[in-house]
Design goal:
Elements: H1 2-20, H2 23-46, H3 54-73, H4 78-82, H5 84-99, H6 106-129, H7 140-163, E1 167-169, E2 173-177, H8 178-196, H9 204-231, H10 247-268
Antiparallel strand pairs: 1-2
Length: about 270
């Protein structure tokens, strides 16, 4: 418990610093984080006997994140628009690598290579883009996202421990309950209301809707990751965070929620 608390404390400090220390630190930190998550995913898949194209997959992740990060920061820059072709080259390299491998299921390898990119790198590009949803870099949206996500996790855990009785999705996550889910949504929405007093980019109902999206879709992301781990018979996705497991365990809520929240903010800002 002590190890978990210490890890959690430093994890929060690092995450907050990455958002608050400017756009270069923000972009670079989440680039590294996305590639570490992708590498962790590939390492897990390899335990099943499948052979994803790890080197070209990580290279593709680097290219995809970087190109879209530059485009998000300055979508009118013609040079950044032309860099899209690098993504095509990187994806082609994934297929080329598979041609030279002598494995019995090449398209299974390719499928999991691209699945890793979709599940990890692409969501982080959407999360990065939250900072540029309005003109210029603004840390308010990614910071609010993290605060609401953490509030949901904490609220769900405490509510589930206190009054949880009815299982939410026992087949994939036996400990999750409806009471915990509702408690998480309520705490996250409360944090959103408090945020609206300080961040004026949205009105309070819009912040609360954002919190509800993060809580519901984030919980779904958690369940999807649990389903994935059960399918390959592992408890934690890794051991990089003592007491917390792997990076996929910590960011499972972000993976599905970030694209949805970005889409929501994009639609209401137009």
């Amino acid at each position: 418990m002590k190890t978990r608390a210490i890890t959690g404390f430093f994890f929060i400090i690092v995450m907050l610093a990455s958002v608050l220390l400017g756009h270069w630190v923000f972009g670079g930190f989440f680039l590294v984080l996305s590639l570490l998550c992708l590498n962790e995913f590939y390492s897990l898949i390899k335990q099943t006997g499948i052979s994803p194209n790890q080197s070209t997959g990580v290279l593709s992740g680097l290219v995809i994140y970087t190109v879209f990060a530059l485009f998000s920061a300055d979508s009118y820059n013609l040079l950044y628009q032309k860099l899209i072709f690098l993504i095509v080259i990187a994806i082609t390299a994934v297929f080329a690598q598979e041609l030279f491998k002598k494995k019995p299921a090449p398209f299974t390898n390719l499928a999991y290579t691209f699945l890793g990119l979709i599940l990890t790198v692409v969501p982080f590009t959407f999360f990065h883009a939250l900072a540029y949803i309005q003109l210029g870099f603004n840390f308010h949206f990614p910071l609010a996202f993290l605060l609401m996500l953490w509030a949901n996790d904490t609220g769900a855990y405490l509510s589930g421990m206190a009054i949880g009785k009815h299982k939410l999705f026992e087949r994939h996550s036996p400990k999750k309950t409806w009471e915990g889910f509702i408690g998480g949504v309520a705490i996250s929405a409360s944090v959103a209301f408090i945020i609206s007093r300080f961040f004026v980019e949205l009105q309070w109902p819009q912040w609360v809707i954002m919190a509800i999206l993060i809580s519901t879709i984030g919980t779904m992301g958690d369940l999807v990751e649990s389903m994935f781990k059960r399918s390959i018979n592992v408890k934690d996705s890794g051991g990089i965070l003592p007491g917390h497991g792997g990076l996929l365990d910590r960011f499972d809520g972000l993976f599905l929620a970030a694209p949805i929240v970005y889409s929501y903010l994009y639609l209401i800002s137009k």
